[in-house]
User: Which sequence fits this backbone?
């Protein structure tokens, strides 16, 4: 038997009472102050990095946290809703140059975050080697698009997490959140471990193992861009960036050079700080010579005041070299200098400034 149609009495309550009438929500109640309120901060497009001040000796005290100083490229890893960005210290997008780090970052999602860290390539002993990183990336210039597929990002700070800007939070809390975020990661993104020991003893061990040094961070300070003193570094071996301002030709290697002339800043000008003649292979020297010949200095007066007797081919101070050295001579020249590689301009490396 067929059921009769349902009665459409005035008591029926359709989903929308009257399609002609406007739809209105209930009046909004005032917020109860006792209820928790969660504010969300927009993710910064870019953050100027915090930089470590160079110290001759590590400061003492329980307010300092210590870790290894890595020798590589400073990077900011942005994990965003629409993808991953890997930015250099100068703010340039190098995502395409670190595919393994990008892939590992995607695996950390769907959280949104900004991780501060250093991209390195490790040698056979597990030490970061800037020269190996440069070989992996390729030299500056035409090969600047090369990829470092074997690079690792050592994460050492967390600046943003899931809608919350953490730069105003003290370092000890940021560190706990970072450890929770990247713990147990053993791939292309790893945690830069803190070292719980007397910093003088840590420095001694770091130097004996051939590491560059140690970095200390004040546990109670927020994240502040620039060299504020919240972060300090103590080095085993000096390693700084210098301008290449010329080269000494070599009779034994006509396509290369005998040594490079280096310069640093002093009072806003660049001055000669000596030569470097070791640290590069024949192939590297030949490649570098071609780059330098395109930058030849056309003026009679050289770019720096030079007191040496060698016949120098001067070049515009454009290329920046990472140089490892042991000390300074009494007349302000580098002692036992070794060439480690070119700093890429997008990295925004600081050329060394003399007092």
Assistant:
């Amino acid at each position: 038997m067929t059921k009769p149609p349902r009665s459409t009495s005035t008591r029926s309550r359709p989903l929308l009472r009257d399609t002609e009438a406007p739809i209105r929500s209930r009046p909004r109640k005032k917020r109860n102050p006792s209820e928790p309120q969660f504010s969300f901060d927009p993710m910064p497009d870019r953050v100027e990095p915090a930089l470590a001040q160079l110290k001759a000796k590590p400061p003492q005290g329980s307010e300092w946290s210590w870790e290894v100083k890595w020798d590589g490229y400073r990077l900011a890893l942005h994990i965003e809703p629409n993808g991953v960005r890997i930015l250099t210290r100068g703010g340039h997008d190098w995502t395409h140059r670190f595919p393994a780090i990008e892939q590992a970052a995607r695996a950390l999602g769907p959280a949104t975050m900004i991780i501060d860290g250093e991209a390195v390539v490790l040698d056979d002993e597990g030490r970061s080697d800037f020269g190996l990183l440069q070989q992996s990336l390729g030299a500056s210039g035409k090969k600047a698009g090369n990829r470092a597929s074997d690079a690792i990002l050592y994460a050492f700070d967390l600046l943003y997490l899931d809608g919350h800007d953490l730069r105003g939070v003290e370092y000890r809390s940021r560190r706990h959140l970072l450890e929770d975020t990247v713990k147990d990661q053993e791939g292309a993104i790893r945690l830069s471990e803190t070292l719980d020991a007397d910093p003088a003893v840590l420095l001694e061990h770091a130097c004996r193992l051939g590491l560059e040094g140690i970095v200390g961070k004040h546990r109670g300070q927020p994240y502040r861009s620039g060299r504020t003193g919240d972060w300090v570094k103590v080095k085993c071996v000096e390693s700084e960036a210098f301008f290449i301002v010329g080269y000494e030709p070599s009779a034994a290697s006509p396509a290369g050079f005998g040594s490079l002339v280096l310069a640093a800043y002093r009072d806003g000008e660049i001055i000669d700080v000596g030569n470097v003649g070791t640290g590069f292979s024949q192939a590297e020297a030949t490649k570098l010579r071609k780059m330098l010949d395109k930058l030849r200095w056309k003026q009679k007066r050289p770019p720096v005041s030079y007191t040496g007797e060698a016949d120098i081919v001067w070049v515009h101070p454009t290329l920046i070299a990472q140089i490892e050295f042991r000390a300074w001579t009494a007349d302000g020249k580098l002692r036992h200098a070794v060439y480690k590689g070119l700093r890429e301009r997008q990295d925004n490396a600081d050329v060394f400034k003399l007092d």
